[in-house]
User: Fold this.
Amino acid sequence: MTSTTASDRVNGVAADADRDRAAYRPAIHYTAERNWLNDPNGLVHYKGLYHLFYQYNPDGNVWGNMSWGHASSPDLATWTEHPLAIAGDVYEDIFSGSIVADLENTSGFGSTLTPPLVAIYTSAFTELSAFAGLQAQSLAYSLDDGFTWTKHEGNPVLNRESAEFRDPKVFRFNGPSEAYWVMVAVEAQDHLVVLYKSANLKDWTYLSSFGPANANDGEWECPDLFPLPLDGRTDQLKWVLIVSVNPGGVAGGSGGQYFVGTFDGTTFTSENTISEDGQALSLREYSWLDWGRDYYAAVSFSDVPGAKRIMIAWMNNWDYANDIPTSPWKSAMSLPRHVTLATIEGEPRLVQEAVEPTDRLVSASYAIGRKTIDRGTELLPDEAWGQVLKIDAELRPGTADEIGLVVRGGQDEGTFIGYNSFSRCLVVNRVKSGYVDFHHSFASVETAPVELIDGALRLRIYVDRSSVEVFAQGGIITITDQIFPKPSSCEVALYAHNGTGSVESLVIHNLESADPNAI
Ligand code: FRU
Assistant:
């Protein structure tokens, strides 16, 4: 990897800026064709399609004019973008929320023959509205399976006279004696998740609240609450509460924490809260969905066949989201992740596996067995290189302080993904990952505690044109980071610092050789 000075790099990037901005468009992650997006909203599987709605600016490439964009997919891999679903107007911005399939027409918006999809979203009211300055929950419905939407005339349906009450996630709760809708939403600045119930999605009754707990430095946003069998046992059902926090995430800025416990139809009780005042402990003690900088506002799909729980996050961070060097689009979604709950070191923990980009599956371009990694950096042959890769590696640190892989390597740049024996951490180092100077806080090193299993670390890494998503030890720990390398930086190398280690096996799939227009 040849050497250039920092100013060469900046100038080089400036000269190549337009080409690079377009070249950063991911191959295996969803982006809107044009313009800004943030949180995934209204994730629902309905009549064979996965619907992905999202916070969207129809008029620009920075945050603003919040409305719901829309895409759908038959397989979570190939997405089709649709016209704007729910538009903001002079009275309200359409903030985050969820969608339910109201199959029994409890809302009365449709009929049992034509059940409505109902969106429950936050109206962020403007100065021109009678509710100026408030955030309250509103409804819109669709009678054509999610493609066109009508706002409910009686909006808002739930108003706490609060300026920070938002991000409703609604699900059907089947209790022993009755079934009803449950909403989880946040009072963002109070670090509270508030729960309500309803028979018809229009009239809501307060149930309980949860919080503050664990990470409380920033605002609480985008909650989600769902059941998962522990260790695959349906007689051992636990409830998982997701709470995004911004700033104050474990890697800095935006992050997502989770709680595991019980939900009795009224109250969520956490079994893994460590701190109720947020003061006592390091952020690293808490349970995080992802230890990277770019995995925020994660929420799950409703009604996935087989009761699977699949989550998608916004692959960005409010610290620098508006400044990332992409155009004419800004921000991608994470890969969809299948999440399960397993007992690990005595604790129930989320285990995450990316849903394979099935449209891209190709035979391995490079595969090796056991190989020593000598001190230094060893470039792999060019069959291993690429902009869009799926990498499976098993590493043994041996005597090295740190060993791992370099991806998207090129002229004095590369993203280092490895294991540090001193800190016993998975490491993603994007300090020299390419264009990092667009924001002072972008260059960073992420670390996440992970135990070796039989002396080895198993990694699955998805490399894309502007991101890496790393799943360690079968998805017990993940790190998701954006990167902005030169398009020509495609090298893959092995590295070992201060000693030697080994790679037990390494298999690389180049996902770019499939149809580049598929996503
Ligand atoms: C989270 C968030 C939500 C809000 C939306 C506005 O990223 O701040 O709390 O509803 O974005 O776009």
Summary: Helices lie at 6-15, 17-23. DSSP finds two helices and 34 strands in the chain. The domain at 358-510 is CATH 2.60.120.560 (Jelly Rolls). The longest strand covers residues 233-246.
